[in-house]
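Summary for the funding panel

The consortium committed to producing paired sequence-structure records for every protein in the target list. Below we show the first two records in order, beginning with the earlier of the two.
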Amino acid sequence: MGVLAWILFGLIAGVLAKLVMPGKDPGGIIVTILIGIGGAFVGGWLGSMFGMGTMGDFSLGSFITAIVGALVLLALYRMIRKA
């Protein structure tokens, strides 16, 4: 269930990251959602390493971790694409 939870969190986090960081992204909304999924996995992995929850639970902390991970990956993606 953990992987499915983070994919769902990632889908939502990708959309929210796009709303928080508006602008033209290379690849459009689909790439942004995929980055959100990746960010959710990275955020969930780092969060579980630092004791901020597990990757299998549905909690507010896990959701915030997924959103932060998506925002970080989206920002990194934009910086790399501009260079």
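The next record, for a separate protein in the list, is shown here:
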Amino acid sequence: MNSTTYIVGLVATILILAGIVELLRRRQLGEKYAVLWLVVGVVLLIFSIFPNLLPSLADGLGVQLPSNLMFFVAIVFLVGVVLHLSWEVSRLENETRKLAEDLAILQLEVAQQKRENVRE
């Protein structure tokens, strides 16, 4: 790997990690996901600082190309994130439905109270 590629990779990784920290600082990324994304950023930083680590790891695991290992891990990670987010969306849909039902009941009760007050 030439020095330009190494420097570009390292700078890109530092920018990604800084972006994650900034999102956390601004509270635009929830604490629930903070550890996950910080770990991703640190792993990227480690692979950027030690570029020969991925090929060594691929050899140790018997993977022919380091990029295959990287893509496999990335796909597994993204499937996990999508599965978790799908679970979150389902939970929020159920909560929203329940809140809408509760609101409809309260609105009905208020309307009934108004009708009773008008009659008196």
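Regarding this second record: The mean pLDDT is 91. The radius of gyration is 25 Å.
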